[in-house]
Amino acid sequence: MTYVRSFLNIIALPLILLFIWFIATLGETSFFVPTPQLLVQTFIDTWTAERFLSDVFPSLGRLIIGIILSILIGIVGGLLIGSFRWLRAMLEPTLEFFRAIPPPVLIPVIMLLIGIGDEMKVSVIVLGAVWPILLNTIEGVRSMDEVLADTSRTYGMNKVNTVRYLILPSAMPQIMAGIRQSLSIALILMVISEMFASTEGLGFAIVQFQRSFAIPEMWSGIVLLGLIGVILSFIFQLAERWILGWYHGLREIEQAA
Amino acid sequence: MTSEHKQPTNPVISQSSVQDTPDGRIPVGKTMPGEQPMLSVQNLKKVYHTDGGDIEAVRNLTFDLPKGQLACLVGPSGSGKTTLLKCISGLMAPTSGEVTLHGEKVTGPPKSMAVVFQEYGRSLFPWLRVAENVELPLKNQGMDKASRKDAVEQALEAVGLSHVPKSYPWQLSGGMQQRVAIARAVAYQPEVLLMDEPFAAVDAQTRADLEDLVRGIWKKLGVSVLFVTHDIDESVYLGERVIILSSSPTVIQEDVLVDLPAERDQLETRSSQRFSELRHHVYEQIQLAKKGFRPEDAVAMR
């Protein structure tokens, strides 16, 4: 019963929006605004297995590699910078500088330096998506509970165990919040990186449709991007529930008290 | 009635030590005759340097803890108890003086020492289950899996928590959480157990149970226990000895031997005449300390 209910909660708003769209485009003749029926038909015709192989999967591959690299670099870098005061003092102003540069403006530079291949596109994703994870990890390490740190010290925990059982889990709620932000940044940058000097990819396909006035096809690509975003966030929520189960339980009890 | 009631009511044992000290000013904590000091605190001083000037938290503390003794440190609030405990446990370096364990200077947390903190909710790992919390220090020491399992089971059994190994600490009541912290310390098999106001945050009934638990574990394991508290009744009920601290900057106000029977009972012991005499005495001393009376003043007046 609760499953049915939560399923209804999830699909209620999309159904309403679809209905409004349907009403609004009744008798619509504009070439630029497709009706829902036309869009569904176009979606099925456009996003065939073949196109998935040629455009969607390469894009998703770069997206996933970019996200994984961002997570690894962000967490490892954040653990180091958060653990050593001198390192933080040395790096923080410089990091602020690089963080302030929007990755898309770096695309021409990266293209000159490492070409127009997958490396360029993954680099652009990482350059944008690494920051929320890095900065949140630093903050998570710094806000370590003092009593817990003292406890670990009195039990003589070695460095590896301290990272594994104390620092990493204690920073994990903030790290996960950072990853959540990074996912949407990574998706945006995946599309943007494919709009320059590309021959395949989801972003490339959408730009191609637009330039050849295949407007319903262009719309269908945008819908596909939205769906990818929803799936990413769903996977993230599953992972978060598994990794941070203790945190949500603790918060619930604290709020009840 | 027992013979102790015929004794003079003044239970002070350390008056002589005031005169015995080298400089004749600072009272020296006693080591029971014929016993090896396990933990020794020598002329410990701690000054915090802040922007607003130096704050002298601990002026000069000297005492020994013999092997197997349960001593309580009691003092008015703000008497530097926590500072002292942090210095003893090697978490903080003293400004001068030293702490030695088995004659070796303490420079970092020693292997044979375990600490139970007041804030149980912040000293247990909330991402680990009860058994995993107890197990972690053993895992860190490289103990093999089978021995670890036995040790964890025994420790949880000893504190009466063998039924909740798979719970998370935050699912338990405050008293049970502190039991988990005690079980973790017990499983670690320390020679010295430091307890920093461990029961200050639990309710009175739980507190009585936990006091008896600590006495029981202490007797069973033969560890030396240094129990810091601000509760006068608790210090007299638990300890074999009560070390009274002065107000800050801290020195030892007095060192009292608790000559209550070894078998203690929440009802019997607490209602005995000797208990109230001792309690009365410790209370008086704490009041004096709060008013700013310092042991060196007594010497100066002489």
Descriptive report:
The complex is a heterodimer of chains A (257) and B (302). Chain A is mostly helical and 257 residues long. Chain A contains 11 helices and no strands. Chain A has a domain at 57-198: Orthogonal Bundle (MetI-like fold), CATH 1.10.3720. Chain A has helices at 2-24, 36-46, 49-83, 85-100, 103-114, 118-142, 146-154, 159-193, 202-211, 215-243, 245-256. In chain A, helix 3 (49-83) packs parallel to helix 6, helix 5 crosses helix 6 and helix 6 crosses helix 8 (159-193). The longest helix of chain A has 35 residues, at 49-83. Chain A starts with a helix and ends with a helix. With 302 residues, chain B is α/β, with parallel strands linked by helices. Chain B folds into 2 domains: 32-112 and 192-302, P-loop containing nucleotide triphosphate hydrolases (Rossmann fold, 3-Layer(aba) Sandwich), CATH 3.40.50.300; 123-189, no CATH class. Chain B has 11 helices and 10 strands. In chain B, strands 5-4-1-2-10-9-3-8-7-6 form a 10-stranded mixed β-sheet, with helices on both faces. In chain B, strand 7 (192-196), helix 7 (204-221) and strand 8 form a beta-alpha-beta unit. In chain B, helix 4 packs across helix 5 (145-158) and helix 6 packs parallel to helix 7. The interface between A and B is medium-sized, with 23 and 27 residues.
Distance between the termini of chain A: 29 Å
CATH architecture of the largest domain in chain B: 3-Layer(aba) Sandwich
Strand order of the largest sheet of chain B: 5-4-1-2-10-9-3-8-7-6
Q: Approximately how much helix is present in the residues of chain A?
A: over 70%
CATH level-1 class of the largest domain in chain B: Alpha Beta
CATH homologous group name of the domain at 57-198 in chain A: MetI-like
Look at the structure and give the CATH class of the domain at 57-198 in chain A. Mainly Alpha
Q: Could you describe the largest sheet of chain A, including whether it forms a barrel?
A: none
N-to-C CA distance of chain B? 38 Å
Name of the CATH homologous superfamily of the largest domain in chain B: P-loop containing nucleotide triphosphate hydrolases
Q: What would you call the shape of chain B?
A: globular
